[in-house]
Design brief:
- The chain is of the alpha+beta class.
- The protein has a domain of about 130 residues: Pleckstrin-homology domain (PH domain)/Phosphotyrosine-binding domain (PTB) (PH-domain like).
- The chain is about 30% helix and about 30% strand.
- It contains five helices and twelve strands.
- The longest helix is centred in the N-terminal third of the chain and has 23 residues.
- Pfam families: Myosin_TH1.
Length: about 220
């Protein structure tokens, strides 16, 4: 009887401590924990660098709305901008690296070049999000095959866990995130596909190899 009573009291004490902790959380801290839960579900045990990312809080955004060109703001007028970050975008043909911005609103993802919107992906049409199991910052945003889309988007992000978490939360597409090993296929456009190969080497690099594949080291 004493052991049963002790166990009941222990559970009640633990419940009260948890309730007190939860009530004491700020809205910012609660938001951080909610995002980290999604990050864990997507990446834990799957991608290198995940454990090191646990102690690094996510920022609300890497660039502010007023850092965007006024013409871009005019083009996405009416949409609530949630997150902006610098990225490197790789061309689907030739894989040339280009500096871009990734802008996430409540309904769409935009790839932006200065005053131009290069590609818009509505979350409702998003087919998948892929990244590798290695420590690179590559993410591929898979889009549908239609005339409005040029093909899948290949991006390199400095804060890969943050970017993918923000994207899949806003798009409500957590189940579509894939962490792949070895290689992945992406759509170039006009029914064509390309291959990206992930490997380990002495220094990070991204290049087009002799076979025409995009190699990420």
């Amino acid at each position: 009887f004493l052991m049963q009573t002790s166990e009941m009291l222990r559970k009640i004490c633990m419940r009260n401590l948890v309730r007190k902790y939860c009530r004491g959380l700020t809205a910012e801290r609660k938001g951080q924990l909610q995002q980290k839960v999604v990050t864990s579900a997507v990446f834990s045990g799957k991608k290198e660098g995940y454990l090191e990312s646990l102690s690094q809080p996510f920022l609300d955004t890497r660039l502010k709305e007023n850092d965007l060109n006024p013409k871009v703001l005019q083009l996405i007028r009416g949409e609530n901008i949630k997150y902006v970050t610098p990225v490197i975008k790789y061309d689907r043909n030739g894989f040339k690296a280009r500096e871009r911005l990734l802008v996430l609103t409540q309904s769409s993802a935009y790839v932006v070049e200065m005053a131009k919107i290069k590609q818009k992906i509505e979350y409702s049409t998003l087919k998948g999000i892929s990244t590798s199991n290695l420590s690179d910052g590559i993410v591929v945003i898979h889009v549908p095959e239609d005339k409005q889309q040029k093909g899948d988007v290949i991006l390199q992000c400095e804060h890969i866990f943050e970017v993918v978490t923000k994207l899949c939360i806003l798009a409500n597409k957590q189940s579509l995130v894939k962490v792949v090993k070895g290689s992945l296929r992406f759509r170039v456009g006009s029914g064509k596909e390309g291959t990206m190969v992930f490997t380990v080497g002495p220094e990070p690099q991204v290049f087009k190899d002799k076979t025409g594949q995009l190699t990420v080291v």
